[in-house]
Amino acid sequence: MSQIDTLREMIASSHSIVFLGGAGVSTESGIPDFRSESGLYSAVSEFGYPPETIISHTFFLKKPEMFYEYYKKNLIATDALPNAAHKGLALMERLGKIKAVITQNIDGLHQKAGSKSVYELHGSVWRNTCMKCGKKHSLESVVNSVGVPRCECGGMIKPDVVLYEEGLDENVLGGAINAITRADMMIVGGTSLTVYPAAGLINYYSGSRLALINKSATSYDNNADLVINDAIGKVFLELYPQLLED
Ligand code: NAD
């Protein structure tokens, strides 16, 4: 049996599936990940710091100009469109198969594809808040600002994304854990599973249908019941060829 057929069978016999994904889910939408060869680590020379340093809480407060230069250039992609992986997951939710999509991504593409039950572990570039008065600001106002975006009150605007050194939102994390513990199947895709606590969420799954879809190997491969080393959009197109018509 082919790996796709095995995945198809696992999905057919499951009723409460959760998906845990990362930056690799959005590479086929043209948004670079961190750790692939063409990923954002290759931009280190331009800024002189690795991404983890630039998008850390300390760096944001100390060098907001450089933070925003990097952030606007590399992490905001307002025109990006959902690919077959996002669309396939939204379809699976409509079919009653997927109960939750848990993502480390901040790009909002799962919602753009139509997924409703989405846990954004690391927040979203689409929400932004003034650090002084708490006013909410649009992504557009951040994108259109010159340099560091500021509120009318003079306060600095911070994206509602979880920077390195910052904790995850407890409600989001709790909801994600709850969904995983109730799941009869877990699909993990497009993540190097190196960023914690997100990667550790996999340990809350205790069932016997854990499928990993990732271009490169991960340290969790030995725990999985099925490992597919391929592009996740391609895999979803094979699962649901009707997505081609979208
Ligand atoms: P990562 O960059 O560490 O790993 C990405 C993984 O996806 C790699 O193992 C790579 O082999 C795999 N991959 C790349 N393209 C793929 C594809 N088409 N199909 C299947 N696998 C593919 O990403 P991570 O584990 O999510 O951790 C990076 C952190 O940076 C996360 O917190 C993430 O939220 C953030 N980030 C987010 C975005 C985004 O919102 N789109 C982009 C870059 C980084």
Number of helices: 10
Strand order of the largest sheet: 3-2-1-7-8-9
Q: Tell me about the biggest sheet? A: 6 strands, parallel
* Mean pLDDT figure: 94
Q: Strand share of the residues?
A: 15-25%
Helix content: 25-40%
Which residues form runs of ≥5 with pLDDT under 50?
none
Describe it for me?
- Helix 6 (about 85-95) crosses helix 10.
- The protein has a six-stranded parallel β-sheet with strand order 3-2-1-7-8-9, with helices on both faces. Strands 5-4-6 form a three-stranded antiparallel β-sheet.
- The relative contact order is 0.19.
- The protein contains ten helices and nine strands.
- The chain has helices at about 5-10, 45, 50-55, 55-60, 65-75, 85-95, 110-115, 140-145, 170-180, 230-240, and strands at about 15-20, 100-105, 120, 125-130, 135, 155-160, 185-190, 210-215, 225-230.
- It is elongated and about 60 Å long.
- A hairpin with a 5-residue loop joins strand 4 and strand 5.
- With about 250 residues, the protein is α/β, with parallel strands linked by helices.
- The structure holds nicotinamide-adenine-dinucleotide (NAD).
- Nicotinamide-adenine-dinucleotide binds near residues 23, 35, 122, 231 and 233.
